[in-house]
Amino acid sequence: MESILPAVPPLRESSRRWVHDALEMLAQEAARSADTHLLKLNFPGFDGIDFYFKDESTHPSGSLKHRLARSLYLYALCNGRLREGQAVVDASSGSTAISEAWFARLLGLSFTAVMPACTAPRKIRDVQALGGRCDLVGDPAQVHARAAEHAARGACHLDQFGLAERATDWRGNNNIAESILQQMAREPQPVPAWIVCGAGTGGTSATIGRYLRYRRLDTRLCVAEPGGCGFAEGWRTRNHAAVARHPTLIEGIGRPRVEPGFLFDVVDQVIEVPDSASIAAAWLLEDLLGRRYGGSSGTNLVACLQLAAAMHARGERGSIVSLLCDPGVRYAETLFDPAWLADHHIELVPAREALQRCLASGRWQPLRD
Ligand SMILES: *Cc1c(COP(=O)(O)O)cnc(C)c1O
């Protein structure tokens, strides 16, 4: 028996202490953080239907990926995959890299985001400002392979796409679904008819869908998806090999393929939204709430209005809850720049007018791209 040696050397006492200290730092960070606001809106055309938007842009690292990054670090630490002084890597060109860099700085770790070279300069600057490094890869399809190379050299791969769905505690622990339902508790219609979210890693929809079942609620879950993208294509036929029919301009959602974290069975409906409508809705959110939010928040708003119009047509009352995922400042040079929109052949006026008519009338007219 003497000859059976553990494959991985056991943790030294000082390393174990570092893991305990790191977990304590994450717990302290969570205790310092307030919950995000649930903002209520009502529209003239939708009598009896209350809309709520959870403002995830107010997290310290600016988006709903703050929750995911905290969970991924916790998961890596509790699985014994992350040790003192170890480098950390993930493939992300967006809000996840910013949140992961934020937590790496908190824990005193060095973080590298593997990104396509075409990533918006603003996001590269945001990661670097937090002390993160950006490893830019010419071919976007190679980012996962490059992250794996970093991991082979000893880095801890946080692996947002592989682990988002299992890193989050779906039974509670103040996950986003539990937080929404607690904030709804004193509202006139406390159990939402619908919760609407997007699918990037699929972590948010998996957590909400599981939690709704766990709590035995009648609330249904809708994924708001850019037209023709991976979740929508796969969900219809439960096909995990499905691929997007075309790319989207909406960042954070609308994946080219079915990600490992996409749980089709907890999603009751998928609504596909043309990019022009998502962007027009992102602009509309500024009129409604006095602040700018990103494109995926617009996609959510369009899906909410479509569900509300169907409820309205059936004479139903109820509440609909959705998310504001990240702030519009990240898109000043893209979605909120008229020259960029013109370059990408996005005409906002027809979609904007259709949305305004919908708010006033409670009726939905299909939008074309
Ligand atoms: C990641 C992301 C989403 C989708 O959330 P997932 O939990 O990854 O599915 C939506 N909007 C933005 C801006 C995101 O960064």
Automatic annotation (TrEMBL):
It comes from the Bacteria. Its cofactor is pyridoxal 5'-phosphate. SUPFAM superfamilies: Tryptophan synthase beta subunit-like PLP-dependent enzymes (SSF53686). The keyword Coiled coil does not apply. Coiled coil: none annotated. InterPro entries: Cys_Synth/Cystath_Beta-Synth (IPR050214), TrpB-like_PALP (IPR001926), TrpB-like_PALP_sf (IPR036052). The keyword Magnesium does not apply. Pathway: Amino-acid biosynthesis; L-cysteine biosynthesis; L-cysteine from L-serine: step 2/2. Keywords: Pyridoxal phosphate. Its EC number is 2.5.1.47. It catalyses: O-acetyl-L-serine + hydrogen sulfide = L-cysteine + acetate. Residues 35-326 form the Tryptophan synthase beta chain-like PALP domain. This is cysteine synthase. It comes from Rhodanobacter lycopersici.
